[in-house]
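Worked problem 6 (solution included).
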Amino acid sequence: MEDDLQYIQQSSGANRVIRVLHLLSRLSSHAQFELLSSKAYHQISSRQRNDRLSNIHNYIARHFRAPIQLDTLADIACMTPQAFCTYFKKKTGKTVFTYINKLRIGYSCKLLIETEWTISHIAQESGFNSTTFYNRKFKENIGITPKVYRKKHQHQRLY
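Solution. The predicted structure is:
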């Protein structure tokens, strides 16, 4: 597949597009793959939800990189904060902040691979105010530290 990337780089016009599509086709049918971000990051668009939950998911998807207040989410759902927490956990199987943190971790996985930013900068960009908290949550969710994750996946960085 490295050869494919070189051929793409050396091609131009329609040939380049054809080579990209060919590579994408090969990648999509490859039997061995590893998700590089958490499932929560991808689940936003992949599940059917009712309107209330959909509105909440849409809000979280647009604002997960900034602080999210429980009261705001409860207002979107037209519920009290306590009722909202119960509702969200019943519908998703996780607390709202566990869900948000998993989404942030998934996004940070993408940044760890695609950028050379510092880990503390990635933590902030992903919505974490504390690098220590980010490192702890990352290891809880992914099983390794962000630094080890980046090193493990650095060969997947495409320029």
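Discussion: The chain has a mean pLDDT of 86.
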